[in-house]
């Protein structure tokens, strides 16, 4: 019961934080939307700052756990594509959470710097696979740069989809952008021995 109440409060917090109207994120508004008392919110989270911290931790932990559950392929580029699909699927299923996770300030909510640490685990998951691709001579270059560009590609696709500029089932943009990125950082074995499969991009 306590877990269900906590989850409901966090969901209402995310929706309020990303709503474009003038309704502010306050403990009273969160409690009203969640159907609980303000005391219940204070008891569980200690106040607005604790509420935002818990929301960020919940969002990033959920995404990190999902990424860690992605099976590793024998081909690191296939694994990178699988991680990208997982990341994108999470964003589509949780648009309010994703908007808050990525934006430092949304409406009346400003993200404390210390909460940005939650992005580190999933970033390291991607970098580890990129390092394997470099070790296998499939890619070459800076692991951090490749990782950031992969993230930027996924985020751009998500943002365009969420705001209606791309259909949610239109993955051609994502495929072409990812292949272009792989080609830019191609290692000795990328073109001669490693084939890119369109199935890697399929959900």
Automatic annotation (TrEMBL):
Residue span(s) of domain HTH tetR-type: 3-63
Protein known as: TetR/AcrR family transcriptional regulator
DNA bind region: 26-45
Organism this protein belongs to: Halioglobus japonicus
The keyword NAD appears for this protein: no
SUPFAM superfamilies tied to this protein: Homeodomain-like, Tetracyclin repressor-like, C-terminal domain
Protein origin, superkingdom: Bacteria
MF terms in GO: DNA-binding transcription factor activity; transcription cis-regulatory region binding
Gene3D superfamilies assigned to the protein according to its UniProt record, in alphabetical order: Tetracycline Repressor, domain 2
Entry keywords, A to Z: DNA-binding, Transcription, Transcription regulation
UniProt lineage: Bacteria, Pseudomonadati, Pseudomonadota, Gammaproteobacteria, Cellvibrionales
